[in-house]
Amino acid sequence: MRAYVEGIGLLGPGLPGWHDSRAVLAGTAPYRPAPAVVPPSPLLPPAERRRAGIPVKLALAAGAQAFAAAKRDAAATATVFTSSSADGQIVHELCAALAAPGREVSPTRFMNSVHNAAAGYWSIATRSREPSTSLCCYDASFAAGLLECTAQVAVDGRPVALIAYDEPYPEPLHATRPISGEFGVALLLASQPTEESVAGMDIDLVPVAAETRLTDAGLEAARLANPTARALPLLAALARGGVEEVVLNYVAGASLRARVAACH
Amino acid sequence: MQPVLISRFSSVNCLGAGTAALLEALRKKRSGLAPCEFETAAVDTWVGQVPGLDELRIKPGLEQYDCRINRLAQLALEQDGFSAAVAQACSRYGAARIGVFTGTSTSGILETELAYRRRDPHTGALPASFRYRTTLNTYSLGDFTARYLGLSGPSFVVSSACSSTAKVFGNAARLMAAGMCDAAVVGGADTLCLTTLYGFRSLELTSRGPCRPFDAERDGISLGEGAGFALLEKPGRGAPCDALLLLGVGESSDAHHMSTPHPEGAGAKLAMQRALEAAQLGPADIDYVNVHGTATRTNDAAEDKALVEVFGRSTPCSSTKGATGHLLGAAGITEAVVSMLAVRHGILPGSAHTRRIDPGLGSAYLLAPRAARVRRVLTNSFGFGGSNCSLVIGEAA
Q1: Tell me: the pLDDT tens digits for B194-223?
Q2: Does the global pTM surpass 0.95?
Q3: Which residues in chain A (115-134) have CB-CB distances under 8 A to chain B?
């Protein structure tokens, strides 16, 4: 399946945006880990801005970057959201409330507990009535999202934004599922090359093969620390701007292969 | 879109295990709802609970996936010859060429709720028996389903609240069209749990009695639980002309509010129109609409407006949630199965528990079941976050 990358969004530890992280990802500047700063979204109406949790802000910030780079109208673009755990803080708060006497559940927290909360807020923020889905595939959530997003682009012939995000769980869930650092990635994909195209990408399922790793030890550690950061080898290939092949772990019977070729 | 063959389907909910029990209940307008006695819930409402799940044993080798939602999924996979049909498909296509696209809203949250009651009083730690990946993580259901069926093709879980298991039909159709798989298992499950019982109550959306969709005195939802699956394949040349097909999928977002639908049903209307467009059909080609019809004041009013705009006031429609309860993430597949039964067995389902249709609503809402020739059905599933999906199911045009 062929798609063209028109815009990229990135927010992670020591990676404060796609533009400011390109050199680090390309290996021409050193990687210096630092906590990600997740800004409130200027896109959201004030009431929704108050209600939105960190994962929602993370997703919106990464998505907004990709749309700005691609100069696309978010209101007219379909989206694929993907996350291993969505809002872990809310899961913790709801389960703690339900284990306590009285079982006082906050209606806002309950409403925001759905896995597609980020998609809902995105649709409100961008006034988009276009289709949107919200996926999970444990550690392969980014690969699953990339597969679905590329399939939509290839089959339906329309641009689609992939927005991936994951944040750490609080304790006691963190001990059972250690994720560290907030990480958000967005890719705006289209079926035809345009002036904004960064690279062409051929996505395929191939027999299980060794996944692509990162040579920088710090970036490799970041890749393994957060499910969404499994996107880093692909982002590094895009940052280097050449012709490369990237393999991502996916399911028991297949890996996902991306053949990337920069547009010049 | 290219039509997709629905070669096998199954279901489990409070009306029984297997589609024969569901069909019988639809014919007799039987409801499976009862006053809530689930776990320790003290919520004054009615629910559609599936009996016998506590005694059900998970398939040997998959014990680590043992939790209520995967038990429900297993029960559905064992009905209607579903697993055997998948095994046959597996021998035709190969395990890696069959996709598994499942949906759920709550995954294994119930077991996490229970584990939180048993936290270490000193450290706050969860009990050692708690298994995150195979119960709480949203992909647990997809992983379990693939392993149970021995499938290794492309897979993910869609979790878009109450539209989840309608949307999986679209995922499967697209990935088959893109050549990523030759067939797909779609469906999913959701269970009763304290999060949704107390959560919907906190939003004042739970009904005090059995839910009464489209009723003048409707006062909210009755939660239910269940699972369902369908096996999708590319229609071969030898497919009979009355073969059951997925004809269209239409998806939209409300862009309005997280838990309240657009008051004019704008997103719902768009989903229905897109499903008809994808099927290359007009409203007159649809013989019955299985509405989302949750029985909240706002949901039914908004959906009715959208229905009247798309279909006018004469296309028969009804909600089956008075019979099954609202299965949340499993509502899409359950009502897709209802639609398949409507076509296969020529029945327009009625609306259990609805007494007097709200005079403010304009669609041709059915109270009593009726026998009829049904060639094509449109079914609606709408969820929190303004996630809408409509499916068109039936015979080729």
Answers
A1: 999 999 999 999 999 999 999 999 999 999
A2: yes
A3: 115-117, 119-121, 123-124, 126-134
